[in-house]
Structure formats: C-alpha cells, structure tokens
Specification:
Strand order of the largest sheet: 6-7-5-4-3-10
Helix content: 25-40%
Distance between the termini: 33 Å
Largest sheet: 6 strands, antiparallel
Radius of gyration: 21 Å
Structural class: alpha+beta
Order of helices and strands: HEEEEEHEEHEEHEH
Length: 183
C-alpha cells in the first residue's frame, strides 16, 4: 500500500511539473536556420504573412513570412520562399538567384540564410534577429531608401506597409492557442 501511495504521489508531482512548465508562454522560441541559437518569442506578437506571386507556366510559388514583434519594434523575421516545378532548369535558375542574393549577407551575424534544393523545389530560408543584427551593416547592404528602419531600429509597421505594396497579407497568430492544440 505504501508503495502504491509513493508511486501515485510521484506521478502527481511529475504531471504538475509538466503542466506548470508547459503552460509558460514566455518559453515559446523560434530556432534560427543556420545556428543553434533560439529566440524567446512568448511575449512577442506573432503575425503570419503570405504573398501571392506567379513565376511562369509550370512553376508554383509559396511565400510565407513569420513576424515576431514587441510594440512597434520588429524583433524577428523568418521568411520561407518556395518555388516548385518539374523543370530542373527553372529550379537551377531560382537556386542560383537565391544563392546570389544570400551571398550579400554572408558573414552578417544574426542574419541566417539557407537555400534548400530537392527534386522538384527550391526553398529560400532567411531568419533575421533584428534585436542582435548589425543594423548599420544591414543598411549598407540594402540601402537607405525603402527600408524598414527608423533611428536604427526595425519597425513592424514599416515592414507591413512595404510588403503590402507587393500584395502581402498578414494575420495575427495566437501562439497560446497553437501551443494548447499541440499538447
């Protein structure tokens, strides 16, 4: 009887620890693509953005962006742009273009890029931690005009306004609901 009581108590304690630690929304993180660093996003607003685009016959395009921000400051941007086609020459063209663009940012810490190629698609992945990236170096690469920076800080409203010019639409994601549905 004592043994059953001890096991029951141990199970109850284990469940309590799991429930308490699993409900802390401040522990939600986003993993960067090329590094092992994580960014805690639990206290940030999360918006999922998509953009419609066409790239020619037989080519499908999927453009997705995840924004994480606090107040008016854009903290993290995660971009995945995927081109799908049965034509390997088209994929070669996109793969080269993505790699050429990413080369401009090589060596810029906290601006992680990757190009993933498989049999019928090419995906460009960009992860920018605006809280840590060298903004001056980023502006040197991207230029002063039509950027998202104000007084050396990335502004979420500027990103959304600029992206709307290209047909991007954003919706707020309730990460707490998402976490609860994953549990």
């Amino acid at each position: 009887m004592k043994k059953i009581r001890k096991i029951s108590l141990l199970i109850i304690l284990l469940v309590c620890v799991l429930v308490i630690s699993g409900c802390d929304s401040s522990e939600k993180t986003v993993k960067t693509s090329n590094t092992n660093s994580n960014v805690k996003t639990g206290k940030m607003v999360h918006k999922h953005c998509t953009r419609a685009a066409t790239a020619g016959e037989g080519i499908d395009v999927s453009l997705n962006y995840e924004l994480y921000y606090t107040d008016d400051l854009l903290n993290v941007l995660h971009s995945e742009e995927k081109v799908t086609s049965e034509n390997s020459e088209s994929l070669d063209t996109y793969e080269k273009a993505y790699k050429d663009i990413h080369a401009n940012y090589k060596g810029l810490k906290y601006y992680d890029t990757d190009v993933v190629r498989d049999e019928n698609s090419v995906t460009s992945i960009i992860h920018i931690n605006y809280d840590k990236v060298n903004i001056a170096a980023l502006i040197d690469i991207e230029g002063e005009e039509d950027n998202i920076f104000e007084n050396g800080q990335a502004k979420v409203d500027k990103w959304i306004s600029l992206s709307k010019k290209f047909g991007t639409k954003c919706t707020v994601v309730n990460d707490l609901e998402e976490q609860n549905s994953e549990a």
